[in-house]
From TrEMBL:
Keyword Transferase (UniProt): yes
InterPro entries to which the protein is assigned, alphabetical: AbiEii
Domain of life (superkingdom): Bacteria
Protein's organism: Alkalispirochaeta americana
A GO molecular function held by the record: transferase activity
UniProt-recorded name of the protein: Nucleotidyl transferase AbiEii toxin, Type IV TA system
Alphabetized Pfam families for the sequence: AbiEii
UniProtKB keywords: Transferase
Length: 92
C-alpha cells in the first residue's frame, strides 16, 4: 500500500483488502516494515496530503476494473483507510 504514491489502482486494491478481511497479523507486520523502512517520517505516511486523483483516474485507471468505480468512491476509500489503519496498527 504505497500511500505516498496514491495511485487510483492502489486505492481500489485497498478497498478489496478492507472488505475481504485480509487485514491479519501478517499484513500488519508487513505494513509496519513498510512504515519503518520508508525514507519519509511515519507521521507523513499515515497522514498524507491528499493527492488530486481526477487526471490520473481518467488517463490511467478508468475502465480497468470489472466493477465500476468512480473517483469520488476512491476518495472515500482513501479517507476511510486512514480512519481504519491507526486502530488496526495498535491492536495487540
Amino acid at each position: 500500500m504505497p500511500w505516498d504514491r496514491q495511485h487510483p489502482r492502489d486505492i481500489f486494491d485497498v478497498e478489496y483488502i478492507l472488505q475481504s478481511g485480509a487485514m491479519d497479523d501478517r499484513l500488519r507486520a508487513a505494513f509496519l516494515v513498510y512504515l519503518i523502512s520508508h525514507n519519509r517520517p511515519i507521521s507523513e505516511l499515515l497522514s498524507p496530503n491528499a493527492k488530486e486523483l481526477d487526471r490520473e483516474f481518467v488517463v490511467e485507471f478508468d475502465g480497468m476494473t470489472r466493477e465500476p468505480v468512480t473517483v469520488e468512491q476512491l476518495n472515500e476509500i482513501r479517507t476511510g483507510f486512514f480512519s481504519t489503519i491507526l486502530p488496526w496498527l495498535t491492536t495487540e
